[in-house]
Amino acid sequence: MTTMNMVQAINQALSQGMAKDTSIIMLGEDIGTDGGVFRVTDGLLSKFGPERVIDTPLVELGIIGMGIGMALNGLRPIVEIQFQDFIYTAMDQIINQMAKIRYRSGGEYTVPMILRTPYGGGIKGGLYHSQSGESYFVHTAGLTVVTPSNPYDAKGLLMGAMKTDDPIIFLEPKRLYRTIKQEVPEEEYTVPIGKANLVHEGDDLSIITYGSMVPTVLDAISKNKVNADVLDLRTLLPMDRDAIFKTVEKTGKVIIVHEAPRTLGVGAEISALIAENRIDYLQGPILRVTGPDSPFPYRMEDYYIPGEKRIMDAVSKLIKLR
Amino acid sequence: MADTKTDNKTKFIKGYTAMVLSRTLDKKIVNAQRQGRVGFYTPTMGQEALQIGAGMALEDRDLIYGYYRDVPLMISRGVPIETILNQIFGNSADISKGRQMPSHFGVKKFNFMSVPSPVASNMPLAVGAAYSIRYKKENKIVLSTFGEGSTSTPDFHASMNLAAVFNVPVVFLCENNGWAISMPVEKQTKVEIWTKAAAYGMRGIKVDGNNMLETYEVVSDAIKRARAGEGPTLIDAISYRMGPHSTSDDPSKYRSQEVTEGSENDPITVTEKLLKGMNYIDDKFIESIKAKTQKIVDDKFDECEKIPPPDPATAFQDVYKNMTWMLSEEVGGIL
User: Does the ipTM surpass 0.95?
Assistant: First the structure.
C-alpha cells in the first residue's frame, strides 16, 4: 500500500497495464513529452517510447477516430482527450462509430478502447474547462460510462476497463485529481464495472451520487451528522440498479446529487427507475441536487457546483434534523 | 517479361469480368428496387474501372476502409455476390443481420471494414489501422476510399494531416464522380482535389478513373510506396456517377446525363476498347461473358431473395459483448 492521489493512481494503472500488454497504446494531445496537461501520463513516454505514447496533432475527432482504427486492427488503445469540453467535435466518431461498430458489423468488428477525459468544474476553468457532459454518453447504447470518485477506484476501474472488449468512456473528476489521498495497493487489481459502492451507511435517507460530488456529500453528512446511505454509482452506464433499489427499500427517502445540469441528467434516469420499480417504498419525493441548467460560470463556480448548503436544504426537506 | 505479360492478361481479363459482374448486379438491384423488391441502393455504375483498378493493386491481406458506393471494389476482392445481395435484402444470411441500410457493407473475411452513412467517418479509422499495422510490423497497407464530397469534411482534413504526420501506410483514393448528390465538384471545392495533398506534405496525383489500367498503375505505385514506408498518397480518380446518388434521388432535377451506358466514356466501353487493342479479349468473349454473368446474377438474386428475414431477437444483439440489463428488460417488452 502506498498513499496516492488520483493522478498517481491512474498513472500507475496505465503503467502497469502497458507493461503487461503490448497491445495497449496511448494517444492524445501533450500526453508524451509533457505528460499531459494534468500530468496523468507523466513518465510513460520514457518507459514505453513514442510508438506507444503518442503525442498527436490537435484534432479530437482524428485522435478518437485513429483510436477506433487501432482497436479494429487488434490493439487496445487508450485515448486521452484533454478536457471533456473539447470532445464535442468528435461526437460523430463516438456515437456513430465507436458505439455502433460491434452492432452494425453483426459482431464481426469490436472496439476495445478506453477514452479517458477529465470533466467537471472546480479548477477555475470557466465554460470550456468545466463541463459535466456525462448524459451525452449515457444516452448512447454501445458505450460504457465509468467515473471514479477516489484514487483506489480510479486505478481498479481503469485496470478493469483495460480488460473489457467494448468501448469505455472513462470520466475523471478533475477536481479530485489531487485533493484526496488514499492507500492504494501497488499490485494490480480491478474494481468491477457496473457495480456501485455504498460508501456510507445510514438509515434515514439515501443519497445517490458519483464522481466529483461523492466527497462533497460525505463531508456534508458527516459535518451535519446525517444518518444516510451514500451510494457512489461508479458506473453510469449501465447503472447498478440493484444497489439503487436496495438502498431505496432500506430508507424510502432519496436525494440524487450530481454536478451536471438537472434536465435529463443522470438523476432523471435514477428517479424514473425508482418511480417505475420502487414507488411503494417511497416516503417522500425524490429530490435532485444538481448543477443548474446554465453554462458553467468562471468566477461564480462555487454557486454552480452543488455544495453543503444545497445538499442540506434537500436533506431537511426529507428528514427532521437533530 | 513474358510472365508479366501473361500475368497482366489474366489480371486484366479478370478485372474486366469483375466490371461486367458489377454493372450487371448494379442494374439488377436498381431495377428490383423500382419493382419494390429491394428497399434502397446506391448505384455504383460509372465507378467500376477505378474501383476494380484499385482492387487489382491490393493484396488480400490489405485492409479496406471504404464507403457506401464500393460494390465493384468488393467484387474485385472476390466477395461473393450472395454476400452482397444478402446485405441488400437484409435477410437472415446477411453478415450485419439486416441491421444496416442496403449498400452499407462490412465483410471482415475480405478485410472490408463495415461502412457507416456519415461520409468520411471511416477515414480517421483508416489512419489508426495503418498506424497499428506499422506498430505490429504487419506487411499490410490500408486503402481508404471516399467520394469527392467527403473532402469538405473535417474528417478528411484530420485524416490527411494525421496520416502525413505519422507517415503511415495508407492510400487515400478519392472516387471523384463529380457529384455529391446534387452538388457538382466545382461547387464543392475551389481547387482540384489532388492538389490538396500538398498542404499536408503528402504526395497527390490525379488519374483517369475511367481507365482501369491507368488507375491500377497509379494505385499500385502508391501502395508500393506505402509498403516501403514512404508514406501516404492522395489519389484523385476522376470518374462519373452514371446513376442517381441513391434510388431515392432523381438527378434530372439538377443535371443532364453526361455519360450514358455504352457511350464512349462509359468505363466498360473504355476497358473493352483497351483490352481489345491489346488482343486480350474480342467481341465474342464480351458477348458470352455478359450473357453468362446475367444468368448468374439473375439466379443468385432469386436465391437470396427467398432467404427469410432475420429472427427479430437478433435486432437487439451485439450492442455489447453481453446484453445490458436495460436492454434485456426492454426487449422483453417488445418480443
Answer: yes
Where do the domains of chain B lie, and which CATH numbers do they carry?
Answer: 2-334 (3.40.50.970)
Contact with chain A for residue B317, Cβ under 8 A: yes
Assess contact for B160 and B194: CB atoms under 8 A: no
Query: Is residue A221 within 8 Å of residue A230, measured between CB atoms?
Result: yes
Is B207's pLDDT higher than 60? yes
Residues 108-137 on B with a CB inside 8 Å of A are: 108, 113-114, 116-118, 121-133, 135-136
What does the radius of gyration of chain B's CA atoms come to, in whole angstroms? 20
Are residues A17 and A53 in contact, defined by beta-carbon separation less than 8 angstroms? Answer: no
* Domain span at A293: 197-318
**Distance between CA A42 and CA A136 in Å, rounded?**
29
Predicted confidence (pLDDT) at residue B1 exceeds the cutoff of 60? no
Same domain, A13 and A148: yes
Q: Count Cβ–Cβ pairs < 8 Å, chain A vs chain B.
A: 143
Among A316, A133, A77, A312, residue whose Cα is nearest residue A216: A312
Q: Residue A145: beta bridge partners?
A: A169, A237
Query: Greatest CA separation found in chain B?
Result: 68
pLDDT in tens, A115-153: 999 999 999 999 999 999 999 999 999 999 999 999 999
Per the prediction, chain A carries an average pLDDT of 97
Place of cell 452513412: B117
A224 near B CB under 8 A = no
pLDDT, tens digit (0-9, with 9 covering 90-100), for B252-282: 999 999 999 999 999 999 999 999 999 999 9
Please, are residues A129 and A312 in contact by the beta-carbon 8 Å criterion? no
Report how far residue A203's alpha carbon sits from residue A206's, in angstroms, rounded to the nearest whole number: 8
Q: Which residue has cell 491481406? A: B61
pLDDT value of position A175: 97
Mean predicted lDDT score pLDDT of chain B = 96
Asked if residue A37 and residue A151 are part of one domain, the reply reads yes
pLDDT tens for B143-177 read: 999 999 999 999 999 999 999 999 999 999 999 99
- Average pLDDT per consecutive 10 residues, chain A (322 residues; last block may be shorter): 96 98 98 98 98 98 98 98 98 98 98 98 96 98 98 98 98 97 97 98 98 98 97 98 98 98 98 98 98 97 97 96 70
CATH number of the domain where residue A220 is located: 3.40.50.920
Residue of A nearest to B94 (CA): A106
Structurally, how many domains does chain A consist of? Answer: 2
Phi, psi of B43 (to 5 degrees): -60, 150
In 3D, which of A174, A168, A229, A230 has the Cα closest to residue A193? A168
**A105: its cell numbers:** 458489423
3-state secondary structure of A256: strand
pLDDT at A322: 64
End-to-end CA distance of chain A: 39
Within an 8 Å CB–CB cutoff, is residue B165 touching chain A? yes
Q: Is A200 a catalytic residue?
A: no
Residue B154 to residue B161: CA distance in whole angstroms: 11
